[in-house]
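hi! just following up on the protien thing from before. the input was this:
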Amino acid sequence: MAVTNNNNNLIVKRWETETWLETIQRKVYGHLLKRGIIYFAPDFLGSKSRGDELTFGFASKLKAIPVGAGGTVTGNSEALDLQSYKMAIDVCRVSVNSPNIDTIEQQRTYVNFEEIGRAQLSQRVRELIETSIFYQAAGANPTSIAVDGTTYTSTDRRFVQGLNTIVPPTSERILRAGGAANDQSLTSSNIMTFDLIDAMIEMAETTQQPLERLDDDDFDLFLHPYQITDLKRDTTSKVQWFPIQLANAASGNNTYLEKGIHDGMISLGRYNNVNIYSSSRIATGVNSSNSAAINTVRRAVLFGRKALSFASPYGGRLTDKDVPVKFHFEEYDMQYFKAVEARMIYGIKKISHSNKQDYGTIVCSTYAAAHTI
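and the predicted 3d structure came back as:
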């Protein structure tokens, strides 16, 4: 018979808070939240809030021609273009089992099983959230997703897709290197370049509903490490990494494309009001004919304001009194073993209103493979 462990509630609360603070501090979720890229949906908060699905209203921009002198607006007023956006929350549970403190297994090693288990669970929480962010933002829904040694297939993919349905990039929110028609057409010559970053910025600003810039009038761009290496090594595009760096060094200007800390995360550099960041969990390409993952293609994402939404009945912002991750403990086999669970109820989804372009993302697919020296 299982016996629930009565851990000190204050200690458990501290573990939960520390886990979430680590998720926020210098991690992708926290960075995007502080930058206004993630919109926190407060509608699920509160003990009386119930339900696992939420619909947001949205009014598209006005487009009618104004009325001048001698004209009348009566009968000529423009109706609001009301749209909707729906997201869900669900449960995600991860756990580890280990010998309890008063066992021969614990006696034989200096490793504290419970402490290491909690640390590993905290890392797992961050891994699942970060992967979900990039697969949602990229609109990537391959038949299998391999992340950090684990392959997710079938319905298990939801745990690395934010527990929400994936929406493919809309027509004015995706470009591919070399003008390729689909991800499987990208070849080794179609790598990430500064020319593509310029094209993303152009797309972000010239569509009917432009991406909304962040507070410092910037965009944030996340690339896979393979794409970053390609960006640095490119020698054929109109704009290149090392000529820029050499020119700045010669002029004494050491701020352009220099690495630094921006809103708590290490930035590779800044180009044309775009802050460039790296993540190994950038989504793979997707074969348009069979939905297979293409591991030699990565979908970089340029973020503007309110690109994604996050929701949990327990909060998720620094200002909230509670946190989305909860630790639960259970002892079994005469209390010889202990199970530790990290449980989350939350959802992450790209903001894409019905019949409109994605609100805050531009996706750029390029060839991206491991490099040799």
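The CA atoms of residues 45 and 356 lie 28 Å apart.
Residues 1-6 have pLDDT under 50 and may be disordered.
cheers
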